[in-house]
Amino acid sequence: MTLTILEPGLLTTVQDAGRPGFAHLGVPRSGALDQAAAALANRLVGNPGSAAVLETTLLGARIGVDQALTFAVTGAEAELRAGTAKGARRLPFAEAFTLPAGTELWIGPAIRGVRSYLAVTGGIEVTPVLGSRSTDTLAEVGPSVLSAGCVLPVGVGTLTPAEAPATVVHHARLPTDPAIVHFHAGPRVDWFRSGSLRQLSESAYVVAPESSRIGLRLSGPALRRHRARQGDLPSEGMVLGAMQVPPDGQPVVFLRDHPVTGGYPVLAVVDEADLDLCAQLRPGATVRFVPA
Asked: How far is Cα 67 from Cα 64, in angstroms, rounded to an integer?
C-alpha cells in the first residue's frame, strides 16, 4: 500500500515521536512539532501514538491514494476534500474517514494554526533512521523533505480506529490571541540586565516570518545583556524549548529540529506543556510569556 505526493505545499515531511537520546552525536530529537495533534490523528485511525504521520505547513498538500485506506487530519484547521472521476466531496476534520483507491486527497491551507497532521491506518512506513522515521530539517537525518512524485509505503493497521472524534480536545490546543506561553528561568539569567525576566513577562512579542521547525523567532522589546557580558559563551548544550537570545536581543525559542549546542545565552525555557502550542503560532501572531 502506498501514498503519492502530488503537491507538497510549502513544507511537508514525515514525522513521528522523534529520536531523543542522540544529542551527544549532534542529532536533535526532531519529530512532529505538535505532538498532541499527531498522536490524536493516530488514535483516530487506530495507530499507536508513535506511528509516522505527514506534517504539512500552512499551505497544505495534495496526495494520491493508491489503495482504499482510512485517514484522519488534525492540528491546524484546514478544509479537506476528496476528488475522484465522479467529482469532489468535503471531508470531516479531526475525524476518521475512508477513501477508495484512485482518490486525490486535498489538505487545504491552514485556516487556524500552522501545521496539520495526516495519519493513515498502518502509518507511513519509510525506513527508520536511529529508531525514528522523522525528517530532521537541520541535521538532514531521516527521510528527505517530500516533493511531488514521492511514493510513501503504508503499513498494515493492527488496531481499531477510535469511534469518538475528540474534536473538543483538538480545538483546545490551537492558539488564542494573544497566545499565552509559560516559561521557566533559564541557566544564563545573570547574562542579562536586572529585570529581564520581568520585561519578558510584561511585553508582547510577535512571531517572525523566519520561524521554522528549528526555532520560533520573535520580534519585540529587546532583551539586553548586562554590560559585563558582551562576549559569546563557549558552546554549550541546548534543550528543547530553550529561549536563546542573540546580540540583537530578539529571542528565539528552540523547537524540535534545534541545534544541540549554541553560544548565545539562554534567558528562559518554555514549559514543555506549551511546546505544541508554539508549533501552531503563525507569523504575525502575538505571544505573551508568563512564568510557569
From this structure: 9
Q: Judge whether 72 and 94 are in contact, CB under 8 Å.
A: yes
**Among candidates 222, 217, 216, 218, which has minimal Cα distance to 193?**
222
Give residue 39's Cα distance to chain centre.
12
Whole-number Å distance between alpha carbons of 202 and 54: 37
pLDDT attached to residue 111: 94
CA distance 103 to 99: 7
pTM value is 0.93
Q: In this predicted structure, what is the pLDDT of residue 228?
A: 73
Q: What per-residue confidence (pLDDT) applies to 165? A: 46
Q: Enumerate domains of the chain plus CATH numbers.
A: 2-171 (no CATH), 179-291 (2.40.100.10)
Return the bridge partners of 252, or none: 217, 244
* b/e code 227-242 from CB counts within 10 Å (16+ = b): eeeeeeeeeeebbbbb
pLDDT value, residue 177: 86
Whether 74 and 52 have beta carbons less than 8 Å apart is answered as no
The parts of the chain modelled with pLDDT lower than 50 are: 163-169, 171-172
User: For residue 226, how many C-alpha atoms fall within 13 Å in the half-sphere facing its CB?
Assistant: 13
Instruction: For the chain, give the number of residues.
Output: 292
The answer to whether 252 and 241 are in contact (CB under 8 A) is: no
Distances (CA, A) of 177 to 66, 180, 282, 285, 288: 40, 8, 11, 7, 9
Q: Where are the alpha helices (DSSP H) in the chain?
A: 35-44, 167-171, 196-202, 275-279
**pLDDT value for 233:** 84
Residues 212 and 282: their CA atoms lie apart, in Å, by 10
Q: For residue 162, how far is the Cα from the chain centroid?
A: 23
Question: How far is residue 89 from each of residues 7, 44, 224, 238, measured CA to CA in Å?
Answer: 19, 20, 54, 46
Which grid coordinates are listed for 276? Answer: 505544541
